[in-house]
Each structure stands twice: as structure tokens, then as C-alpha cells.
Amino acid sequence: MLFHICDWLEHNRWIIGLSRSVTLSVILSVTHYFSFFCVVGSIMIVDLRVLGVLGRRKKVAELAEELLPWMWMGLLFVILSGFLIFAGDATAFYASRVFHVKLMLLLLAIALSVITQISALRWDRSPAMPVLAKLMALVSLVLWVGVILAAVETPDPYLSPTIAQMKSGSSVQKASGYSPSLQVGRWASKTNVSAP
Fold this sequence. Notes:
By secondary structure, the chain is mostly helical. The protein has one domain. Helix content is about 75%, strand content about 5%. The chain has a two-stranded antiparallel sheet. Strand 1 and strand 2 form a beta hairpin. Helix 4 packs antiparallel against helix 6. The longest helix is centred in the N-terminal third of the chain and has 29 residues.
């Protein structure tokens, strides 16, 4: 079912037009990476403050109030640009386990960021930073590093080996019982893959 949705999404005429445009693809990629740096940078600074590593002159709530709006704005652009990048090669991303891990880590990291933002004022009222807060900050840092490493390991949609595997009858194709039309590279024409 999800594979069918990915295939439909990949073949949407708006997505095809967007992903075949070199200029728009570059703009999307730059937006995605820059926004991701804003997200990770702002939350890491808050996490490091919770751990007492930097920014000790400012309270956690004060620092969170200054930086977390950047995180949320960056996250909005990460999600929008990421969805459009995903849509252009949805079937390749669907088959990537590393991409699934990246999304799972991202959701967990965002959840911890929400908890941090909600709890920052309460933590500042404590005479010392609670151990639970420090543990959450440490886990948050590990999750964000995990997201970055998973992003680096996510197959490049332009050179994805998934496409070659699907041509020869991959596990995704066999499991779904569906033979999609594949886009071989963003700027190449669509190729219909016959069932094995």
C-alpha cells in the first residue's frame, strides 16, 4: 500500500517537473541542509547549556526562548523541502532502511526538543539542573548525531543502487507484488520495469 502511494507520488506531474529542474532541485537541497543546520545547531546549544558545558550565564529558559524559534522555523523548512526531495524519488527512499532509521531518530529527537522547551522554565527554578534534564539533553545530542549519520548514509537518489536492485527484482518489488515505473535519475525519462 505505502509503495503504491510512493510510486503515485513520484509520478505526480508537479513532482516530476520539480525534480527534473536542476535549479529547483539545488534550491531544495540547499534549503534542506541550511534549515537542518539551524535545527540541529539551535537545539544542540540548548542541550549543551542543560549539560552545563556552555552558556552558563544564561538560564536555560532564556536560551531556549531565543534559540528554539529558530529550531521550529528551520524544522518547518526541513519538513517541506525534505518532503519534496523525498517525493522525487519516493520508491528509492521507501526501500532504504537507513532512511527509515533517520526518520525514527528524527521523530525521537523532535519529541525530546518539545519536552526540553516545555520543561526549561521548571528546570531553571531548581537549585541545580536535574539529573533527568541532563540525561535528556545527552540523549538528545546522541539522537541528533544519529540523525546526521543516518542522513549521510541515506542513498543518494541520483545514484541509488535501489533502482538497479528493483530492475532485477528486489525484495521490495517481490514483497509488494507491484512493478512500478521507475525514474532512473532525476533528469532521465521514466522507464517501465516489467515484473520478474
